[in-house]
């Protein structure tokens, strides 16, 4: 019976899975092969670890059921299903619960672990370990040998899987590395297995080394450069114009900046609602991350744990000091390992903001501006131009009632917002603060170098229900660009991978000398 459950249960679970796409996608033959095979492998693994048949059977139910619920919730919030890359983020569930548990729901998390604990207790009390059902060996030795033998089997199967499933065969097998389509085609759990095997394939994953001698030569390498990757920033006027009676809406705060010489445009980014690292990596390196194979989903998981050319490298070679600021935990998305490989001399995290002002649950954009001002003054003091790449955090969701307690009246914000939606009204206030930060940095104190300032959004906010109700399905964000000493020519709409080159051009660099990273 447990084996029958392990082989057929996955098909039952798959019937409840939401892939996130409505496109009619026929099931691959691999779905019917891998679903029962994976189910039996998972069951055998639980059996080897726990030693109880009943516990292994019930754990497979909890695992398949729990992952189905979590994946469907992820589709609802972020439009994409749960995939192998998300197991990396499982550690953040405990390290940084504010980013995950608030979305999943504390009750769901407690319920899942409580259920696992109850299951384990009943199994231990009512069942007999499988190692104790034989008489040839002492139970503890039988258990150890069984576990060791199964781990050996898994190692052999892993090597065989890597030989059969790799990037070179992905297209042949119909794996296009788009989570929604692959889950619809292969099923949620087989797709996790396939993506996991592709992640283990490191063939052809090493960036082509760049020629250091061909780096860009600035005309006047004296302008400071500040780039702000602003959490979930986009021109909300585009959304408001979708609403009834708001077709002529103007965002006055943004208009004031553009009337003062700030260039603005729409920005095509690979992410929506989350996966900041996709946009971040593409901006810094100029890479079209769709060319990274399975690594495009999270280039910080494996790909960027080696030197990769970036504009930070180029600026460092031109005499700049390069600093990344993120007023959050440095280990999130493994940035503490990645940022040095992307050319930054220093990476400042939450430890650099002791006692900093918060606006809502996170460090405010005003406090981030204070840190940027301090660093620019220090750079001027030592006669070295600065490149500061700041990753904001203030406007990170979820946007729930009480977020601005003691700061402002949330009811007034809702009443003054065309949507009448609390989450969007709170989110909009954060965007006002982001634009205020950009405007503040335009005031260059006497004695400091000229500066180039850019700001762009990493992705749209995870407010799918609000957008869907208005018929708004645009995934583009927006960017701003300004130079303190001269008017910049309009650049129009562009892709995020081209924005870094535009920033360097604004600072006076010969962008024709900037190498494009190529992947083997």
TrEMBL record:
UniProt xrefs under PANTHER family: LIPOTEICHOIC ACID SYNTHASE, PHOSPHOGLYCEROL TRANSFERASE I
Record domain Sulfatase N-terminal: where: 224-484
Membrane topology, record value: Multi-pass membrane protein
Protein name: Sulfatase-like protein
Keywords: Cell membrane, Membrane, Transmembrane, Transmembrane helix
SUPFAM superfamilies named in the record: Alkaline phosphatase-like
Subcellular location: Cell membrane
Transmembrane segments: 37-70, 109-128, 140-161, 182-200
Organism of derivation: Eilatimonas milleporae
Stored InterPro entries: Alkaline_phosphatase_core_sf (IPR017850), OpgB/LTA_synthase_biosynth (IPR050448), Sulfatase_N (IPR000917)
Gene Ontology CC entries for this record: plasma membrane
């Amino acid at each position: 019976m447990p084996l029958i459950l392990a082989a057929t249960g996955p098909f039952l679970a798959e019937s409840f899975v939401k892939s996130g796409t409505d496109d009619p996608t026929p099931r691959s033959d691999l779905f019917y092969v891998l679903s029962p095979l994976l189910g039996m492998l998972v069951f055998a693994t639980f059996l080897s670890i726990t030693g109880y048949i009943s516990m292994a059977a019930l754990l497979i139910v909890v695992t398949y059921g729990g992952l189905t619920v979590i994946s469907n919730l992820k589709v609802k919030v972020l439009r994409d299903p749960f995939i192998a890359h998300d197991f990396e983020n499982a550690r953040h569930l405990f390290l940084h619960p504010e980013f995950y548990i608030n979305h999943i729901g504390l009750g769901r998390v407690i319920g899942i672990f409580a259920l696992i604990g109850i299951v384990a207790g009943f199994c231990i009390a009512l069942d007999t370990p499988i190692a104790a059902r034989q008489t040839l060996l002492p139970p503890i030795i039988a258990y150890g040998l069984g576990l060791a033998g199964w781990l050996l089997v898994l190692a052999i199967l892993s090597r065989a899987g890597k030989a059969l499933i790799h990037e070179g065969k992905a297209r042949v097998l119909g794996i296009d590395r788009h989570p929604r389509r692959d889950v619809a085609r292969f099923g949620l759990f087989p797709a996790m297995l396939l993506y996991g095997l592709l992640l283990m394939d490191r063939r052809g994953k090493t960036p082509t080394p760049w020629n250091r001698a061909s780096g860009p030569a600035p005309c006047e390498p004296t302008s400071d450069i500040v780039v702000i990757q602003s959490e979930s920033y986009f021109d909300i006027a585009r959304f408001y114009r979708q609403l009834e009676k708001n077709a002529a809406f103007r965002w006055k705060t943004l208009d004031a900046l553009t009337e003062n010489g700030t260039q603005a445009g729409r920005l095509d980014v690979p992410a929506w609602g989350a996966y900041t690292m996709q946009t971040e990596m593409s901006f810094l390196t100029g890479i079209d991350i769709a060319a990274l194979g399975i690594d495009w989903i999270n280039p910080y998981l494996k790909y960027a744990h080696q030197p990769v050319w970036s504009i930070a490298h180029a600026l460092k070679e031109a005499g700049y000091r390069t600093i990344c600021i993120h007023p959050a935990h440095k280990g999130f998305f493994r940035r503490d390992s990645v940022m040095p490989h992307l050319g930054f001399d220093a990476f400042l995290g939450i430890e650099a903001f002791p006692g900093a002002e918060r606006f809502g649950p996170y460090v405010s954009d005003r406090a981030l501006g204070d840190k940027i001002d301090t660093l620019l003054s220090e750079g001027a003091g030592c006669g070295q131009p600065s490149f500061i790449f700041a990753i904001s955090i203030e406007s990170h969701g979820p946007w729930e009632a009480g977020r601005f307690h003691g700061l402002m009246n949330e009811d007034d914000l809702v009443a003054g917002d065309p949507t009448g939606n609390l989450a969007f009204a709170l989110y909009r206030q954060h965007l006002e603060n982001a634009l205020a930060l950009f405007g503040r940095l335009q005031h260059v104190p006497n004695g400091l170098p000229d500066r180039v300032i850019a700001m762009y959004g990493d992705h749209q906010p995870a407010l799918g229900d609000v957008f869907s109700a208005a018929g708004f399905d645009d995934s583009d964000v927006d960017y701003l660009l300004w130079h303190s000493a001269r008017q910049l020519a309009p650049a129009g709409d562009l892709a995020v991978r081209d924005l870094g080159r535009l920033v360097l051009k604004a600072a006076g660099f010969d962008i024709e000398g900037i190498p494009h990273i190529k992947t083997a």
